[in-house]
Amino acid sequence: MRRLLILLIAAVVLMAPAFRVVPPVSATERSANLRGVPLSQEKHHHLVLENPYVKVYEVEVGPREATLMHQHLHDYAYIVLGDCDLTNAVPGKLEARLKLPDTTVDFSRGMFSHIATNNGDTSFRKITIELKHPQGEVNKVFPSINQALASGDPDSAGMVGVLESEEMRLTATGVAPGASWSPARDERDRLVLMIDKIYNTSGPKEHNSPFPAGMLAWVPAGKTWSVANPSAQPMKLMVLEFKDSAQRSSLAVR
């Protein structure tokens, strides 16, 4: 009996390494294996807003130009401003040619590097919204803001769902000439993009970006805020709602 007990103890000791718990690899360790510069150091990406939810970059790449190889460490959503013709080069993968129409919206998982080349004769412009919190499952309803607004299926608040994750909801709405729009006064913080302001070439520029100033607004939960459309054309808005705003501390927006 004693000999059997000794053999059992020896077997457990020998098998212990096979059951060793391996700690998860941190984001910092994974990013160390990525090529390229951090997103904040890529010269075509201009940081215009940051808070505990997001980092928002306005991106402009000139005709026949390419970005540096750069890293995306977080999930992000983006909108393309104007038709574009791009080549996307990710290390270890085949290059992809992308022809994207105006107001294309999409979501990308983080932790990769790439180079984006503008094959067109006009500047490629987009807004990248880096999402600081894990997004979970993502459901994409429409490929662009234009298609979402053309669907004619808004919810009771006049918003058309475009893309949704477990953390945020990306919607679109149109504002008629002479009218105004206000977000619901609820417990959700919102990021509002006034898309049509990209065509305001005669006004002031963003302080560290070639884009027109005032395209973006952060609207804290419960705040009274509105945007008017003084033009003779419908105005398009893209709105990101953050679902867990009530559980997070108040934001310090820069």
Please render the helix and strand layout as text.
Elements (H helix, E strand, L loop, with lengths): L1 H14 L11 H5 L13 E6 L3 E8 L8 E3 L3 E5 L3 E6 L6 E5 L4 E4 L3 E7 L5 E8 L6 E3 L4 H6 L9 E6 L2 E8 L4 E2 L7 E6 L21 E4 L7 E2 L6 E8 L12
Antiparallel strand pairs: 1-2, 2-9, 3-8, 4-7, 4-9, 5-6, 5-8, 10-11, 11-12, 12-17, 13-16, 14-15, 14-17
Approximate strand percentage:
35-45%
State the helical fraction: under 10%
Q: What is the structural class?
A: mainly beta
Find the count of extended strands (DSSP E, 2+ residues). Answer: 17
Our count of domains comes out at 1
CATH topology value = Jelly Rolls
Query: What general form does the structure show?
Result: globular
Distance between the termini: 72 Å
Number of helical stretches of at least 4 residues: 3
The average pLDDT value, as a whole number, equals: 89
CATH superfamily caption: Jelly Rolls
Stretches with pLDDT under 50, minimum 5 residues: 249-254
CATH architecture level-2 label: Sandwich
Spatial strand arrangement across the major sheet = 10-11-12-17-14-15
Order of helices and strands: HHEEEEEEEEEEHEEEEEEE
**Biggest sheet overview:** 6 strands, antiparallel
Radius of gyration: 23 Å
